[in-house]
Amino acid sequence: MRQGTFKWMKSVNKSIILNIIRSNGPISRAQIAKKTNLTPPTVSSNVKELIEQKIVKESELGQSQGGRKPTMLLINHQAFCIIGVDAGPEYIECIVADLSGKVMNRSETKLPLPITNQQFIAALKSCINGCLEGIPEAEDKIIGIGVAMHGVVKVDTGTSLYAPNIGLVNIPIKDELERAFGLEVKVENDARAMALGEFWFGNHGELTSMLTVNIGRGVGAGLIINGKLYHGSSNIAGEIGHMTIDLHGEICECGNRGCLQTFVTGPAIARKVNKKTSENPLTAEKVFEQAIDGNEEFAAILKESGRAMGVGLTNLIHIVNPEKIVLGGGVSKAEKFILPAILETIEASALTPLASQTKVEVSKLGDDATLIGAITLLMVDVFELK
Question: What is the average pLDDT across 254-260?
Fold first, then answer.
């Protein structure tokens, strides 16, 4: 396996040209020069290097503008691969994908709970190795590993500082995986990784700001500002699950009362239903299925969760005013019930008419949203100049 890094190939001009090809390809050398104001010789020499490095390839001839037809340029998506890992609280999922986000292979490992740091690292390595076993021909193309980890992550060292759902602290994910696989490793909070993947692969057009909210067992968010992830001064930006919605509400696992996640997460929804019924305990997924089948009481509980989410999102609109909000995670699958309630609450509560029109939609990346986010951590390393 090769040491995956593109730092050796980056320069300002090369980075500019590479991103123009990524966002506008197929595109000719002349068109690149026009868009970037670089001289044609500068474009040609940089493109030549990018082709030699296999990140760019030539395609079919383009439309003639009076002379001979130009050769068009595209990103060579199949030339390299990235490993993406979603390190959830119950399972670790792993994919190998090419630079277009196309999944080539995947694997899954169930976590033995309770678990130690050493067992968690072993499970990560096992899942990655299992994913690689199915595609040995891809090993020499892999440029790195992206890990989306729940909880608080120290991004510069790739350390999981606090993983509340599995009760672990100070897991040296980056160091351990780089030592095991000889590849560059990026580690990020799962909700922020999802936000980055959504920004790159969610087909949202030209945006400068976007908020992605992951609603599952917990609630986390990722904020994109000017195309970059915002981390905050101590890497806890996006922990919106612990935003207070009701001063007299339920006690959250964090110790505070009335946190957003006591209203909107899967466990919170299941808990509210199970308080009202004498039947066998139901999961949030079963609640949704029965609501679809016509259970009006369960539908009302889902709508109530949507209203609470609407309050939380209204607060965020007033604070960061994003162009778009994208919802992901298991609870977002109940969009039939929660999304109208969210939109109605924002419309009724937002400070101005423009704020109330903030676009809110459910991710189209589906169950792979976090995994796609994990590979995007390395995509940024490939395409963006640091």
Answer: 91
Which residue has 């050769």 as its token pair?
71
Distance CA 170, CA 168 (A): 7
Which of left, alpha, beta for 205 (phi over 0: left; psi -120 to 50: alpha)?
A: left
The CATH number for 145's domain is 3.30.420.40
Within 8 A by CB and 6+ apart from 201, the residues are 101, 365, 372, 376
Please, which pLDDT band fits residue 67 given cuts at 50, 70 and 90?
low
Q: How far is CA 154 from CA 37, 82, 168, in A?
A: 39, 21, 14
**Residue 141 and residue 181 in contact, taking contact as beta carbons nearer than 8 Å:** no
Give the side-chain half-sphere CA count within 13 A for 248.
Answer: 0
CA distances from 115 to 111, 149, 190, 385 (A): 8, 15, 19, 38
Classify residue 196 by its DSSP letter: H
Q: Report the pLDDT value the prediction gives residue 77, as an integer from 0 to 100.
A: 92
Query: What's phi and psi for 297, nearest 5 deg?
Result: -65, -40
Q: Specify the pLDDT at position 5.
A: 52
Asked whether 117 and 54 are in contact (CB, 8 A), the reply is no
Residue 343 sits in the same domain as residue 229: yes
Same domain, 29 and 132: no
Which residue has better confidence, 60 or 334? Answer: 334
Largest Cα separation within the chain, whole Å, is: 79
User: What pLDDT, on a 0 to 100 scale, did the predictor assign at position 1?
Assistant: 46
> What is the reported pLDDT for 296?
93
Count of the separate structural domains present in the chain: 3
